[in-house]
Amino acid sequence: MLKKTETGEHTDQDEETDIREKIEITLRRLQELKGRVAELKRRCEELRKIESEHTEQEGVENTLRCDKCGRALDPEQQVAVKDSDGLERSHYHKECFQTLFK
Question: Do residues 84 and 52 share a domain?
């Protein structure tokens, strides 16, 4: 009967070790994905900066741009989001704004 108990304890320890290894692997993968997301966000910001510099050079600097797609906004197709103080914080095309809630 002792051998079964010892074997059972070893099995429990092996399962616990396997679970810990899987958790560690998952956490490493999560950190890797977080790094990729951060890099993509940084690259998007760089592209937005380059685009805004490019449009300023073309003389379109006063045109409002959609915060989702970055294209110029037509006043008739514009949705402005205001904060609690009533200040406009972001602007979207009607279609882009609707996709935010789908």
Answer: no
d(CA 37, CA 32): 9
Q: Examine the domain organization and report whether 91 and 43 are in the same domain.
A: no
What pTM, to 2 d.p., does this model score? 0.45
Q: Are residues 67 and 54 in the same domain?
A: no
Full domain range(s) for residue 17: 1-62
The residue with greater pLDDT, 86 or 2, is 86
Write the CB contacts of 27 (distance below 8 Å, at least 6 apart in sequence). none
- Please check whether residues 8 and 47 belong to one and the same domain: yes
Q: Rounded distance, CA 5 to CA 1, Å?
A: 7
Rounded to 5°, the CA angle 63-64-67 comes to 145
Q: CA 70 → CA 37, 47, 90, distances in Å?
A: 20, 11, 12
